[in-house]
Every structure is written in C-alpha cells, then in structure tokens.
Design brief:
Layout (H helix, E strand, L loop, with lengths): L1 H35 L4 H22 L5 H19 L8 H8 L16 H9 L6 H11 L5 H8 L3 H17 L12 H20 L10 H16 L6 H14 L2 H4 L19 H14 L7 H14 L8 H14 L3 H15 L1 H11 L10 H12 L3 H12 L5 H16 L13
C-alpha cells in the first residue's frame, strides 16, 4: 500500500513538473536571457533544465513547495549565479548584476522598459532578427519559448532532426556575432520582423492544436500561449496591425473547436463528426471581432484568408449548410499567395464537398509527388477517404496502410486504424475524412 501511495505521489510530481515545464520554461528562459544578455541563451536554457531535474529529485522526498514555479525560478537563478562565478568566460557580467540577482531583483537587463512586450515576446522578436535566416529564427523561437524538442520541431517542418539542430546552433551563433539585443526593435525596424513573429506564433498554436508526437492530440496550453502572445501583439501600438488581428481571429476560430475535437475515449473526431454545440461560442465571437479589425486595412495576407475560411465553418450550423463554394474560392486566393502543397491538400478536401470525390482525386494526384508530402500521413489518408466514397474499398485500404507508415500522433494513429478496420470489416459507403481543418 505504501509503495502504491509513493507511486501515485511520484506520478503527481512528474505531471506537475511536466506541466510547469510547458507553462513556465519558455518564460523562465526568456527572463533569464534578458537578465544575462542574449549571448547567454545557452546558460539560461541550461539552468532552467537543471531546476526542473532538481525538482524531480527533491520533491518526492521533501514535498511540493507552496509556490512550485517560484521555487524553480529561484533554483535556476542560484544555479546561474554559481556558473557565473565559476566561468571565466562570463566575467563580463557586472558585480552590480550579480548583486541584483542575489537580491532577487530582475537587474538592469537589456531592453527593460515599461513599454516593452513581455520577455517571451521580446525573445521572439530577438530571434526574428533579419540577420538570422528564416528557418533558424523559427526553430530557435520554438525551442526557447515554446519548449519544443528538436524532434518536434523537425516534424513540424517536415525536416531532419540534424537539420533543425544545426539551425538552432546557427541562430545562437549569429546572436553572439551580431551582438543582437533583447530589446523591442525600433518602430521603423519592427515590420521587417513582424511576419516572422506571426509565423512563429501560428506554428506554436498549430503544435498545440494538433501535436505531432505523443499520446495527446491537443496541447491546450500551447494554444492558449499562442493566443496570449497574439493578444499582446494587437494591444501594442507598434504591432496592432490588421494582419495581427487576422492571425488572432484565425486562432480564436480554431480554438473554439477544441472541446469537440476529441471524443470520450480520446479518439480524434473529424470536422464532420464534431458536435458543434460544444464549440466555444465566446471564442467564435472573439474571432469575428478580430476578423472585423483585420478588415480595416488594405493588405490581404494568408491569415486574412485562412481566418475567412475558418469563419465560414464557424458560421455554418452543419457541414451540409457550409458554404463550400466560398471556401474553394478562398483557397484559390490562398494558393496564389502561398502555393503550398499543404494548402493544396486542404483545397482538395473542399473540392470533394463541392464537386465530388472524382474531381478531388484528379487534383490530389497532381500534388501527390511533392517532396514535402512524402511522409505526410494526411496525403494517403485523404486519398483513402476519397476512394472509399467511390466504393473502391481495397484501394482505399492500401492508402490507409500507407498513412499508418507515416509519422503521426497516437490519437491520429488510432483514428487511421479505426478507419482501416471499418473498411476491412465491412464496406460502408463512406467513412468521413481525416483531420483537415479547412
């Protein structure tokens, strides 16, 4: 009985540390980077990891402290102080800063001002400096602010682990070499970085909306963090632009579906299978508010078009009443701005609802050889759905098996297995379509 109790306690502590890591690690790393300076990002990441490991070692014996996140911050700060005193390479840190750290004060960190965005958003703007290549900017931000592992980022980019690791190393090296500061960029320089910042925030949201690895399809905390960062952007004088409102609208529309995306047993539910009564009406209302704000300018961005597509779904009472013609038109315009194979794949699903599976298959075959979709499970899964709607059950099963050979999350794998079993066990006229949040 005692052993069982200890096991439950250890499990609770592991869960709490994991929760704090997902919620606090990015903020802790960002704050410590402000305090120590951008050239010491590695140090900030190291001491935060050390603090989390120490929590796993100590809390099972001493109990969870009253303020767990505060405990982690203090342990990370103390570890940083030890390293600063020992490492001769860090002697440039002033005694004044050491004293302020010892006293628990934030210290005269670079870029600290009353109008500065919070540390995490400042970290994103720093990582999105034009001197850093686009791919490295995004990889660094997702690692330091989002708390993603190299493998998670690689799957988000459909890239190799080694390539992502090299991008992160290159970004950190450029920050040191270019002496990039942590402060919010000058208003004249801010627009050049804003597009990358928006891209990073949306990638953060997408990783939470459909996690690429693990047992859980949805990581709501990442969605909420992306929305929080997007909200900070639109409330800041320098970045409260229509395209920022468009991204925020898009995230609110998609977040509204979260309560209906997962069934009682943790299974993935397609858009057609979701109970729309569970959609968060408050989130939908916020989406329409920011979509209206996005229309105030003359610029048309991908976020405007994607938000408009999501609005079509939010406004429809059912799949049958959805304005698929309007959605296809929006995808056509989106492809003009971004001829992405993933956009083309989502357009195929919309075409199938408007013109039928035959027309959709013809379009799908045109993009099936794209290199970026080589290991993307939704490509063969979509073909499987379209073939099953035509009654081509054996061919559909082949494509579902191909989808199962591709990387995907555990819920997505269970979803594909369920569809495959339905095909091989009986021959339904149709089996829904895979997760394609158009």
């Amino acid at each position: 009985m005692q052993e069982s109790s200890n096991s439950r306690s250890d499990s609770r502590i592991d869960g709490l540390v994991d929760h704090l890591f997902r919620h606090q690690a990015g903020q802790m790393v960002s704050t410590l980077t402000r305090i120590f300076g951008p050239r010491h990002i590695d140090l900030a990441e190291e001491v935060v990891q050390d603090a989390l490991l120490k929590a796993l070692q100590i809390w099972p014996f001493r109990g969870i402290p009253e303020n767990p996140s505060g405990w982690l911050v203090q342990v990370a700060k103390n570890r940083a102080l030890d390293l600063l005193r020992r490492e001769s390479s860090l002697q440039s840190i002033s005694q004044e800063l050491l004293r302020s750290l010892s006293a628990g004060e934030p210290g005269p960190g670079p870029g600290h001002s009353s109008e500065a965005l919070d540390d995490e958003l400042n970290m994103i703007f720093m990582a999105c400096h034009p001197s850093i290549p686009r791919e490295s900017r995004i990889a660094l931000t997702l690692k330091t602010v989002g708390g993603f592992g190299i493998r998670e980022i690689a799957r988000a980019f459909l890239a190799r682990d080694s390539a992502i690791a090299q991008r992160v190393v290159r970004a950190k090296r450029l920050i040191r070499e270019k002496q990039i500061t942590f402060d919010l960029p000058d208003p004249k320089e801010l627009p050049a970085r804003l597009d990358s910042v928006l891209e990073v925030i949306y990638l953060l949201f997408n990783e939470g909306y459909t996690a690429h690895t693990g047992e859980n399809l949805v990581r709501r905390d990442l969605c909420e963090e992306a929305i929080r960062l997007g909200g900070l952007l639109v409330t800041h004088n320098a970045s409260g632009l229509p395209k920022c409102h468009a991204l925020l609208a898009l995230m609110f529309f998609q977040a509204a579906r979260l309560p209906a995306r997962i069934g009682k047993d943790g299974e993935l539910l397609t858009l057609a299978e979701q109970d729309r009564a569970l959609w968060d009406r408050r989130s939908i209302g916020r989406g329409f508010y920011h979509l209206d704000r996005a229309a105030e300018g003359s610029e048309m961005t991908e976020y405007h078009l994607q938000a408009a597509i999501a609005a079509c779904h939010a406004a429809a009472e059912s799949r049958e009443t959805t304005d698929w013609g309007r959605i296809v038109q929006l995808y056509d315009r989106l492809q003009e701005l971004n001829p992405s194979p993933v956009v083309a794949l989502n357009r195929v699903v919309a075409l199938s609802k408007l013109y039928g599976p035959e027309a959709a298959i013809e379009e799908l075959e045109k993009i099936s050889e794209h290199a970026a979709l080589g290991h993307y499970h939704l490509l063969p899964a979509t073909m499987g759905v379209l073939l099953s709607e035509l009654g081509e059950i054996e061919k559909a099963a082949v494509f579902y098996r191909q989808a199962l050979d591709c990387p995907c999350s555990d819920p997505e794998r269970r979803f594909l297995l369920k569809k495959l079993e339905a095909l091989t066990g009986r021959q339904p006229r149709g089996s829904g379509h895979p997760r394609s949040e158009i």
